[in-house]
Amino acid sequence: MRQPATTDVAREQACTACALAPFCQATRAAPLPGAAVERGRMLAPGEVLFREGQPQAALYALRAGCLAASVADGCGGAHIVRFLLPGDVAGLDAHGGARHRSSARSVGASEVCELRAWHVDVLCAMRPALGAHLDACVARELDDAQRHAAALARLDATQRVARFLLRMARRGGGGAGGIALPMGRRELGEHLGLTMETTSRLLTGFKARGWIGLPPHGVVIRDAAALERAACQPHDP
Amino acid sequence: MRQPATTDVAREQACTACALAPFCQATRAAPLPGAAVERGRMLAPGEVLFREGQPQAALYALRAGCLAASVADGCGGAHIVRFLLPGDVAGLDAHGGARHRSSARSVGASEVCELRAWHVDVLCAMRPALGAHLDACVARELDDAQRHAAALARLDATQRVARFLLRMARRGGGGAGGIALPMGRRELGEHLGLTMETTSRLLTGFKARGWIGLPPHGVVIRDAAALERAACQPHDP
DNA sequence: CGCGATCTTGAACACGGTCAACTGACGTGG
DNA sequence: CCACGTCAGTTGACCGTGTTCAAGATCGCG
Prior knowledge:
2 copies of one chain form a homodimer.
Chain A (H helix, E strand, L loop, with lengths): L7 H9 L21 E6 L4 E3 L7 E15 L5 E7 L4 E2 L12 E14 H10 L1 H27 L2 H14 L7 E3 L4 H8 L3 H13 L3 E2 L4 E4 L2 H9 L5
Antiparallel strand pairs in A: 1-6, 2-6, 3-4, 3-5, 3-6, 7-9, 8-9
Helix pairs in contact in A: 2-3, 4-7, 5-6
Chain A binds a DNA duplex through helix 6.
């Protein structure tokens, strides 16, 4: 739960559940033509993987660390649409088009595998199942985005933070005992539509009630049932 | 601008810009095998086209009227993710999966064309360009959803309403002079993350400043520049 | 040790929600 | 034809949540 767990163990865990596994030599029984996935590119903290409007160069599978996907709000600000954890794919926002519609930035240090865009096209043309797999990934992102919008529109701050923690836990954000929270309070707020201050207050509030623990750069969930309750009923003191 | 303009003229306008045109006999030079699109199914006001969790039966192209796409918020409420206008496609949320992840309800009376799901698969397998076309439609929906989330998270009520009006105008929600607003204030609020009252206040506020006119079931934009300004700078009296 | 960034905590304010009353359009039935 | 009911929209007064501004705590790092 310290800084990004870039051990070999963590990387291999990510690979078995990686969304690009069907494209990857390392995890396939039947080999694919050509060396599909280029592995192990490192990203420095804050480094930008791609930016809104840029032509799509590749798909990226996150092996270790954490990425933030964001879109500009047209008024000088940006909203973090989602956080990517090991095993997730970045760059699918350009699927069916040629240009990225969102940006991706590394939170802390990260490691990604690259699958060149032209390679994606070639492989999907040869194996229709691969194209369908990507379609399913995009559909899941669409569903995510719509549910996120629904949460922003209808839930109060407490519900949003509680849901976020439960979701991170369900996604296995760190496995043993605690969830890793590599992003700062400000970035958390930029994702949940809250200010840094409100986010901080709510987290310490949860901690004060014994629902969570707050080690540095992480969270441990102590009372999931209480969080589930808070995630649904509005206006709970 | 009265009730849904279900004239033949309006229908044909929708057809030329329809997102399912590549699948439709009526608009293609080169015919497709089989009668692909079944045209002209009528929907009563409030009628549900499909619901979250149901298996996907078809894609639907809206010919006339207006649909509301919504997702449940998990707490007994629902959020309207977007409004569909003539020429838009409904049902793409199940692309790459088998079940709908959102619901679609008719606002007022509507008319849709159906393209059976199995037919979509067959045609996409035969003509890869058709599959790519649908991918592009899904990508646009994803982008829409993410920008909508950004607006809900970072913009105040005035900015959201102003943007909504400009967007509707840009989408050609009714052509000559005025935009059709078939949905009620409540539904408008359910889309913008506001209450009926706030939505009403802001619209009448815009009208009082001469920025818009408010005929029944519609809006006319009188000062687009002022709305653009309001859409960006926050907290304007 | 001291500087800077991140996080926490406090107090006052304002935006938008809530509750409530009122208006006007429409449709039904006496 | 008007009385009546309903429903969508409008308007007003009040209040609460989350923001804003500001000060202090905590930690990492040179």
